[in-house]
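REQUEST ID: PR-0412
SUBMITTED BY: lab tech R.K.
PRIORITY: routine
TASK: structure prediction, single protein chain
INPUT:
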Amino acid sequence: MSRITGVIVALATTTAVLTGSTAGGAAPPEARVWAPSAELPLEIPGGVELTLADGDLLRVYAAEDHRAVWARRQEAGTGVWGERSVVLKRKRLSCGDVRARTANGAVVVLAECDRGSWSEDQAPVASVALHSADTVSWSAYELEGEAYEEPGISPDGSRGVWLESGGYVTWGPEGFTRRALRTPGREYTATATITDDAQVSYLYGANVAPRRCRLLVLTRTGDAAPSRQEVPLRNACQDTNFANVDSDTTVYGDFTDPGHQTVISRPDASSPWAVSAIAPATAPGLDEAHGRLSTRYFTAPGQPLHAVGSTGGRVVRAQTYDPVRQAWGPATTVYDAGTRRCRWGDNWWARPPGVVIAAVSCSGRHMVLTTGAGGPWQALRMGRHPYGLSPDGRYVAVPGRSRTHVVSPELGVVTLPGGVTGRCDVVVPDGPDAAVLLTSAGRHREWPTVLKASTTEGWRTLSRTRLPTFPADCIGADSSNSELPFRFDVHGRWTGYAVQVVQRDGVWTVRRTRA
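STATUS: complete
OUTPUT:
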């Protein structure tokens, strides 16, 4: 895992230009990318997916019935997933979520568990710390009290740290060791990092005096008296998340909102901690909008961070963040709705898309605003149908009444002939330049009955479906993007279900899923 010190900046040259509806134009300039949480594990249902030192992927997750914690590894060379293996399974222990970190091939895991049954609404009180040097054999240790913060791992993978009530637990060549630590004035969340030499830094927000909140850092090795450092940090005492990236870097903020992420780091273990990158939402130059279309923040892998909003709700403007200067650039108009008033559409995703998209609804006119790195903004007319995401979120299909757009990192916006008109029709991308449509065989017929693929002339039938059908008065379909897997919820007058349009072994198919 790469170390982040100073301002987090990734200078990425993006070679793709917008084609299709925006063919031509020069290649965009280098994009200064703001992506502190990109260094964190990818969340999956019940757990996380880690990228190991050799490029393999490891998924560690709680079983749906909460009776075990599983691991499954994918070989980087073949792309083949191995059989799942048991990481943790104990009688009367119920585990509902997993947090983990990796370094040098080793993995540390926090399994959030309770005795008896699992509840999403209560803090776990029987969580378990786990360490593995090879992802095959695991050592486990039950933590005391409420324990649900992410674990920390040293750069060489030989040491780990887990927070628990009254202190923390470390792992090293000596095994697991419980260490008490007083954290006066602590408010809400905390995190801890550990070095190869077993130095632990415990970071937390604290009220150190009336109306004086600071980020406190207690650093020590073993049971020695800790050194104490105060770091000025806005909102340090709010109920906001910490997540350590490595032994010298942590991120503080809302990990669903890239505009509200602050980086706290140090050059090395002998140096003091400091705010090395402020949250962009607090940076100078921001022309913040309030009201129906208040400012929101959008980005994608390899692309800059954009602030989008409109004070009056009619003229939508965007600014681009420069993480080197830690300041916002000038505002530009990305969409003028005329006399219509706009509000935000569906912009919540369990996994952020691979492209910059911002959905707005302007007095019944639905639009998707999008841009590539360094390229112009485009406003894509969507109609009343929801947009569709590929399973990995890399591609987005935007349905219109007479045409369908596919947005991708490779090609930008590609416009396909053939729109989406049926009341319950849904469309998903098929790579960067094609789409698949779930629809009925004709007007006034039951839905759904067929899958269709895009062509240069419109839609062609792929196959018939075997799903339960709705009568012709099917009410509509909504995207369900805030949970994995991505799907659509379709509604009839008296019934409804969730559906996925997926590709299996090169063949497109459709299946019902749990709503």
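NOTES: The mean pLDDT is 88.
REVIEWED BY: pending
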